[in-house]
Design brief:
Blueprint (H helix, E strand, L loop, with lengths): L1 E2 L4 H7 L4 H9 L5 E2 L3 H8 L5 E2 L13 H10 L5 E2 L2 H9 L3 H24 L6 H14 L4 E2 L4 E4 L20 E6 L1 E3 L2 E2 L2 E6 L6 H19 L9 H18 L6 H8 L29 E4 L2 E3 L14 E3 L2 E4 L6 E2 L8 H9 L2
Parallel strand pairs: 1-2, 3-4
Antiparallel strand pairs: 5-8, 6-7, 7-10, 8-9, 11-14, 12-13, 14-15
Helix pairs in contact: 6-7, 6-11, 8-9
The protein binds glycine and manganese (II) ion (2 copies).
Length: 350
């Protein structure tokens, strides 16, 4: 490891540094050096037959030195330079038992924050206040930070997939869609729940919610090695299931409307140190034991009379984090209420 050396002047202003000795002691580095020695080390390292390194634009500040970049580009045949991140992603995609333990804690903390947020929600509060509530409840349980800017979308704001303004009032009779998760020991959780601002689903909200919930539950059942399935495979199943669920409640949609308008996103992604973890690994890979993925079907009905009027303006997503098991999935976010009866109970008990 190459690290900034101890320096009393710099530490007076910026706080303590671990230093060269410290990284051996605390981070178990086999070898550690003052980072000013890095260019010399790199020049030597570039003589190796193969050099694994990420493209300069992704390299840390230390390497954004023009001299070093040109050294890499000219001093080495490009064929000998191989990307590092693909190897790292391979190591990251299947989690160790220790990582799963951390992710259990991460999911549990965020799930508890959702319970507190549901109990607390009422008409007149703002999306920003609900955001603050979730942030507070996550941090108070040990999260260091929220893993991403959350979506806190009252009523039709939920129709914008990336709504992060989170600055409007929550209205009586609307649902609120919240996509939020805390980070614990650097591992993200990524939960979405949708609940009634006043604590009670209207009939159309209930029908549409149950449709999405049925798809969420059926897809979670597919999260096993035994199913021999990929994320794309689960997505295809989710589209089929969603079509059936929507037909039951009076939609007659084309495949285009279903996949481009009503349910325009993927059912899930890998999860871990990043929210969209190991993002360059294909979602066509067969799921293996101890991979962690999200399952997040959603429905967003625009104000358009191609769709039943009573559902227009409603957006619902239900997102869980799931560890792939041999024959049974393990849901990291199971303690965040999602059955209608549990949500209404939670909302009524503040
Ligand atoms: N929160 C980002 C996602 O659900 O993918
Ligand atoms: Mn999410
Ligand atoms: Mn997600």
């Amino acid at each position: 490891m190459f690290v900034p050396p101890k320096n009393a002047d710099a530490e007076l202003w910026d706080g303590p540094r671990t230093g060269v000795q410290g990284v051996k002691e605390f981070f178990n580095a086999d070898e550690a050096y003052d980072n000013s020695r890095f260019p010399v080390f790199l020049r030597e390292a570039l003589k190796a037959e193969n050099v694994f390194i990420d493209p300069p634009k992704n390299m840390p500040t230390l390497l954004e030195d023009k001299q070093i970049i040109s050294l890499i580009e000219t001093g080495k045949k490009m064929s000998a330079i191989k990307p590092l991140s693909t190897l790292i992603q391979e190591l990251r995609v299947v989690k160790s038992d220790a990582e799963i333990d951390i992710m259990k804690r991460s999911g549990h903390i965020s799930a508890k924050a959702f319970i507190e947020a549901m109990k607390w929600t009422q008409p007149g509060y703002t999306e920003a206040q609900l955001w603050a509530k979730l942030d507070y409840e996550c941090r108070m349980r040990g999260s260091s930070i929220l893993a991403y800017v959350p979506v806190v979308a009252g009523g039709p704001n939920a129709l914008s997939m990336h709504y992060v303004r989170n600055d409007m009032k929550l209205r009586d009779g609307d649902l609120v869609l919240v996509d939020c998760g805390g980070e614990y020991n650097y591992y993200a959780s990524d939960i979405t729940r949708t609940w009634p601002v006043n604590g009670k689903f209207t009939e159309p909200q209930r029908e549409l919610y149950q449709a999405v919930l049925n798809v969420n539950r059926a897809c979670i059942e597919l999260c096993t090695v035994k199913q021999n399935i990929s994320l794309h495979g689960i997505h295809a199943a989710s589209v089929k299931l969603m079509k059936q669920e929507l037909q039951k409640i009076g939609f007659s949609t084309t495949a285009w409307d279903l996949e481009r308008v009503l349910y325009p996103h993927h059912v899930g992604h890998y999860l871990g140190l990043d929210v969209h973890d190991v993002h360059s690994l294909s979602r066509s890979r067969k799921l293996r034991k101890n991979m962690v993925i999200t399952i997040e079907p959603g429905i967003y009905v625009p104000f358009d009379d191609r769709f039943p009027r009573k559902y227009q303006g409603i957006g619902i997503r239900i997102e869980d984090n799931v560890v792939i098991g041999d024959t049974t999935p393990y849901v990291l976010t199971a303690t965040a209420p999602k059955e209608i009866v549990d949500i209404e109970y939670c909302c009524a008990n503040n």
